[in-house]
Amino acid sequence: MVNKFLNGLNTAWRGLTLTLKHLFVGNFKRKVVSVTDNNYFKLQEDTNTIQYPKQALPSPEVGRYQLDVEIDDCIVCDLCAKVCPVNCIDIESIKSTEGSIGETSDGSKKMLYAAKFDIDMAKCMYCGLCTIVCPTECIVMTNQYDKTVFELSDLTYQFSDMAPEAVAEKKMLVEKQNAEREAAKEAKKKADEAKRQADEAKKKAEEEKRKADENKGGEEDGEGGVLA
Amino acid sequence: MNFYLTYFLVAFGLFAFVGLFTMLGVYAERKVSAFIQNRLGPTETGKFGWLQVPADMLKMVQKEFIIPAAADKILFLLAPVIIFIGVYLGFAALPWSAGVIPADINIGLYYIFAIISIETLGILMAGWGSNNKYSILGAMRSAAQIISYEIPAGFALIAVVMIAQTLSLQEIAMQQGVLAAEKVKFLGIWDVSHVGGILSWNVFRAPHLLVAFVIYFIASLAESNRAPFDIPEAESELVAGFHTEFTGLQFALVFLAEYSMMYLVSMVGVILFLGAWNTPLPNIGPVALADWTTGTAWGIIWILLKALALVGVQIWIRWTLPRVRVDQLMNLCWKILTPLAFACMLISGVWRLWVM
C-alpha cells in the first residue's frame, strides 16, 4: 500500500516535470523543410506544430492529390467517367458536325466537343483510376491538396472551356445535321417506297402480260394439236 | 444607508473580480495546455489570441436558451444559479490584506466550508433536473466525490486550526508574518516572530502541516471537480456530466462557478498554509525585506500572486495527469488521505500541548 502510494507520487512527479519542461522548451518555431531533408525528423524535437496556413510543408511534385484536366488534350472518350468508382466525373459530349475538330498533343483526333467536364472533388476518393485509363493522359493528379472552400458547390471543378453560347450553337448544329439526315433518310425511304411501288406495278403488268401470253399460247397449242 | 451601498459595491467588486479571473483562467488554461502539448493555443483572435475569451463569451450570449422538454424546469433553471452563488458567497469571508476583508467573521473558515457545500446541492439539482442519464450519473459522482473529499480536506484544515487556535481567517493570516501578536516558531524550534517571510508560514510552523497542505491541495482539486478528479464531467464517458444539457448563459454560469471554485480553494489554501497576504521575503539582519514589503497594497499583491500560482499548479496538474477511476478516487480518499489527515490532526494536538 505504502509502496503503491509512493510509486504513484513518483510517477505523478515524473509526469509533472515532463510537462513542465515542455511548457518552457517545447515551443520553438518549426522550420519548414522537405521530408526528403536528412534533418527532417530531428527538426521535430522541441518545436510546436506547423502553423499550417502560414507555413506549409513542401509537397512533392509527383504528389497524387487533386485532379486536373488539360481540356485541350481531351478527346471526350468518357472512359474516366465510366471507370470512376464513386461517379464523381460528369461529362457531356457533343458530336462535331464537321468531322475532326483538331488534334491533341499526342496526335489523337478530336471528334467530340466537351460541353461539360465536371469533377466533384468532394466525392473523389483519390484512387487515380481515371488517370490510368485516360488514353491521352489529359487527366492528371497534381500536388495541390488544399481545397478549402466556403460553398460546397465550389468543390465541383468545371474543366470545360466552352461558353454556353458555343455549346448551344454546337448542339443546334448537331440537331440540324441530325434533322437533315433524318430528312434525307425520310426522302430515301419515300423514294424507296415509290420505287417499290413502281416495281410492283411493273411486276403486275408483266404478270398480266404473261397470263395473256399463256392464254394466247394455249390457243396456239390447240391449233398446233389440230395441226398435229 | 451607506452601509448597504458599501455592501453592494463590495459584492459587485467581488463579482467583477470573479468574472475577470474566469476570463484570465480560461485564457491561461488554453495557453498552458497548448504549450504543454507543443501547440500554440489561440493565435488568430487578437494579438496572441487575447480576444479569444471575449469572443467565446459573445458566442455564449448569442446562444439559444434550451430547456429539454422532459426537464424539471424549476430545478433546471435554478441549478446553475445555486452552483454559482454557493461558490460566490464563499468569497465574502476571504481576507485580501491586513484590514481588507469583505466580512470579518470569527468563524470564517467554518462559514466557507459550509457555504461551498451548497455547490453539491446545485450539481445534484442540475443532474436530476436535466432528466438525462449522463447528467444524473455525473451529478451522483460529483456528490459522492465532493462529500468524500470534504473529510480529508476538513481534517487537514482542522490540523491548522488547532495550531492557530482560531477559525477567523484574518487572524490566521495575521499569525503568519511579522505582524503576528504571538510568538511564531519555525518548525517549533526557531523563533521567527521578527524575521517573518516564508519562514513564518503555517506550512513551516510544524512539519506535519506540509503533509496537511498536500492533503488539502489534492482534496481541493477533487472539490473543484478538476482533473485528475474530473470524473463528474468525464468528457469521454459522460459527454459533459451534470452540465450536459446547459446552453448559453447557463453554461457560462456553470463555467464561472468552476473557475471561481478553483480560485476560492487556492485562496483558502494560501490563507491557511502559505502565509495568506504576508510577504515571502524574510528580514535578514539590517535588510528588513519583510517589513518593507508589508502593507495593504503589498498584501493584495502577495495574496493574488500566491493564489494565482496555486491556480497555475492546478492547471499544470490537469494537463499532466490522466483522470482517475471511480474506485481509485475512493481508494485515495478513504484509504490514504483520510487516515493521513487524521494523523495530522492528532500530531497537531500533541504539537500544541508539548511543543508550542
TrEMBL record, chain A:
One of its GO terms (cellular component) is membrane. It comes from the Bacteria. It comes from Mucilaginibacter pedocola. Residues 178-228 are annotated as: Disordered. Transmembrane segments: none annotated. Residues 178-219 have a biased composition (Basic and acidic residues). GO terms for molecular function: 4 iron, 4 sulfur cluster binding; metal ion binding; oxidoreductase activity, acting on NAD(P)H. Keywords: 4Fe-4S, Iron, Iron-sulfur, Metal-binding, Repeat. It holds the Pfam family Fer4_7. The lineage of its organism: Bacteria, Pseudomonadati, Bacteroidota, Sphingobacteriia, Sphingobacteriales. This is 4Fe-4S ferredoxin. Residues 63-94, 115-144 form the 4Fe-4S ferredoxin-type domain.
UniProtKB/TrEMBL annotation, chain B:
It comes from the Bacteria. The chain crosses the membrane at residues 6-28, 74-96, 108-128, 149-169, 198-219, 251-277, 297-317, 329-354. It catalyses: a quinone + NADH + 5 H(+)(in) = a quinol + NAD(+) + 4 H(+)(out). Pfam families: NADHdh. Its EC number is 7.1.1.-. It is found in: Cell membrane; Membrane. The keyword Membrane applies. One of its GO terms (molecular function) is oxidoreductase activity, acting on NAD(P)H, quinone or similar compound as acceptor. GO terms for cellular component: plasma membrane. Its main location: membrane. The keyword Zinc-finger does not apply. Keywords: Cell membrane, Membrane, NAD, Quinone, Translocase, Transmembrane, Transmembrane helix, Ubiquinone. It is a multi-pass membrane protein. GO terms for biological process: aerobic respiration. Belongs to the complex I subunit 1 family. NDH-1 shuttles electrons from NADH, via FMN and iron-sulfur (Fe-S) centers, to quinones in the respiratory chain. The immediate electron acceptor for the enzyme in this species is believed to be ubiquinone. Couples the redox reaction to proton translocation (for every two electrons transferred, four hydrogen ions are translocated across the cytoplasmic membrane), and thus conserves the redox energy in a proton gradient. This subunit may bind ubiquinone. NDH-1 is composed of 14 different subunits. Subunits NuoA, H, J, K, L, M, N constitute the membrane sector of the complex. This is NADH-quinone oxidoreductase subunit H. It comes from Mucilaginibacter pedocola.
